Amino acid sequence: MLAEIPGIVTINKKSVVIEIAHDLGFHHVAIGSMQPLKDQEDRYLSWIESGFAASMNYMQKNLSRRMQPGYFFEGSKSAVLASVSYYSERPAIEPFQGAVARYAVGLDYHAVFRRKMRELRGKIAVELNCSVLGKPFIDSYPFFEQAYADRHGLGFIGKNSLLIMPELAGSYSFIGELFLDIELDADGPYQGTCGKCFRCGVDCPTEAIVEPGVVDSNRCISYLTIENRDGIPLELRARLGDWVFGCDVCQEVCPYNQRPIKTPWIEFEPQSGAGHYLDLVETLAIGSEEVFQKKFGTTALRRPGRRGIIRNALVVLGNQFAEIVSGSSRWQGVTSSELEAVKRSVFDFACRTDDEMLREHAAWAVFRSGDASRLSSLEKRETVPVLKERLRKYVIALG
Description:
- This protein is α+β, with helices and mostly antiparallel strands.
- It has 15 helices and 13 strands.
- α1 packs across α3.
């Protein structure tokens, strides 16, 4: 940390900053420059122009700003890029539970990461014995931070489009930046590669990875269950499997994630937030947005809102119904009375909700359960012509 010259002691500021960040629990740390991301701009624009941003119109705004590291904090001279693992082991799923992507099982990472970055800034000022101005950012402002992290060696962008960390550390990590008004030497790129491996693309349930490094959000389960405000497309519902919020499949099959690093921060552990699974029947019973926010307001699950989470829960229930009635060995322990009780919960929800989109998803779940009687009852009750026609098709399909 200290370089001694006869009569003079100088401080290697970069080494000090990196050591402080590691002491706070950040796993990988790099220093970024304020040079524009010119080389990465074409790739981002091509993704947008291909329509792969789906309905995320905010991704198409402020395109020039997204490539300007210094835009968001006047006086920036460098940035600390840092990552921390959010990984925690997932227990076995139980019947009528929906899986939550690992990044969302604890508290909302935005607030936690910003707090840690502010702590980092304060410690830097103390250790360097000077005034340090800085501003933290993480995934909530129009900046192409993934390309920025790739350029400065925090990791490399894999074929699943995620940042893969050095030292076989994998991709189960949050990344963020602390822009500072002090000059630090920038790092160069990390030379990582996926080689010939394309397991993420082959195993993606919805075939959303259309080519190495390119994800079509229109098909991505994370987009469909979180950012999407409409119904889940019929042709993709069965492919959601058990995912009620997000998806980890492209990470679970990645060779770089075979020995994941457990999160060092309790805030990201399942007991701090929503946990690895949601009880789907309890989710249907959430009666208002106020109740929903009270339950999930400190977690990332608040993003799709009550309506989105219930929509997702209905799709997962439909998928599990279909497996159970087909005799899947995965659900051999489910009794007929347990199945009947959950089917009744879905039917009752369909009868009481005023939301047309949720009524249709509930009817689809009943359809997947093979319950012709309840499905016919829902079709007879329906008064919206377009929706009634959809339910009629479900009835006909059951024969």
